[in-house]
Write a structure and sequence with these properties.
141 residues; 3-stranded parallel sheet
Amino acid sequence: MKSHKLGVFGQTPPADWLLRHRLFDQVVPYQPQSGDPERYPGEIVEKDLVAGKIDVAFVWGPIAGYFAKNATAAELAVVPFAPTPWIQFDFRIAMGVRFGEREWKDRIERLLEANRGRIQAILAAYGVPQLDDEGRIIKAQ
């Protein structure tokens, strides 16, 4: 792995992982938010990984999944990081409502739970890696 070019966004958990494993000499850094409306985070996968400018792209799961699934110029594999005790790679999605709107909060929670299967199917259709309630990787079908 010492000869591979590793694309990674700065100030992210994968950047910390690469530092800890002394692999930062091969890093090709990417800016998470450039402010340029013509740039987008998926370019690291869609353009640079496919073109061979980098050998591995360390990106957020939804970005990796979507762009790998839709890549036509190359076959790409998404390999989620396994849970690691000293660094968090996965994050739950949260929704918020204004304080005091308990009925609205309860309604949203019921809708999310009632549509859990449909939501998971949509995420899978877009190639988004998913975890179960215990944090284990759900294998794509």
